[in-house]
Amino acid sequence: MIKRYLNSKSTEPLFLIGPNGSGKTYNLKRYQDITEGKSIYISEDGNLDVKMLRSDAIPNLETNEYLIYPKSKYYGETKDREEVKTHKIDPKLLDLISFCKKEIDFYRSIKHKSKGQEKAFNIFNIIYKSYMNPIKYIFFDEPENYLDDLGLRKISVLFRSLKKAGIKLIVSTHSYSLCNLLNVSINNIIFINKTFDIKKSSYKNSMIKLTLNDVKKIYKESTIDFENFIKDKKLDVDGGIRNKMHFYEEPKLLNLYLNDILKSEQFYRALFYKRIVLVEGPSENRIIRKLNIEELHDNYFYITYGKCYMIFFANLFSKIGKDILIITDSDKKYKKNADKYNTAYGITMYLEKYYSDVVKLFDVDLENHFSIDKSNFNNKGLSTNEVKVYAADEYFSSKRNINKFTKFLNK
Question: Are the C-beta atoms of 277 and 249 separated by less than 8 Å?
């Protein structure tokens, strides 16, 4: 996957996302060796990892030339000092070098640098003082380490400058903020997962890559599979739910929807968790999160903004190697004047069949299942969602009720 990217025409940064020990750094170093002489590797501490003879290069932005100072193969100065050579700076690098110079001057103005500021200074200095003409690839290992928000924004601008200069970036990261700042496409993410192989009693790593077209296919297949399911069960078809699930019939509409969710902060955050808890809406999310249940501390709560999207998200997150937990209402009720169960309950039935080991269903809805009394908060100028949250806060102030909910989740 990385090799294919290196040989492609794309200059969009490629991101390796996965837990510690999954092989991100190993892959960066592996391909650094393969591209020796054409690449730079910058470690998580912001240092240059030297693999071969490198000459110091000082750019002169008045003449647009590099001043090349020779070094021996042992990285020390030569005994008989050669004459300093000059090379014209590749024109596509000029904006990049000027930007790095500006940032170097900024960080030099800070007398007592923090570790993050020192790292940012080192990164800009490495690119500024390297002979960049032959460089086609830069490998970054966790560039976000030690950086505050300002430093991270400066690095994101650097990445855009490198892209403009035609230099490919391969980045190992644990930062959803960096992905968000760069508006990273799923086309440019490789998911590296670490799983335990029971048969071999050892961990193994796997690499997964999905394109936007793959996600579109997942969306369409999830919808068609569900509709075949409810057709077989002879359930009522809700027009509103059907329209939402049929975005795939309108390419522009589907592109808008997927662009909105796949480049959202919520989605980027979810990528850095092993287990995702899918909830239907903001109110359910707020109520469950307010419980502060220890068993759920290491999970990420993902709001699907509609039960009709749960099947798609369950399928999508499973495809990229995430464990999922689904918490939703059962919606077991008839549509008015109908003799069939409604489509919402059809989703419940589908989830129970295909995700039985990870779905937690409430009989009707979150409040009714636990007999949460909302009457004390009605008619007080609060929104419906706010009423639910305040009522839930009151109900779950009792340790006994929290234990009741926790017992339900552990069924």
Answer: no
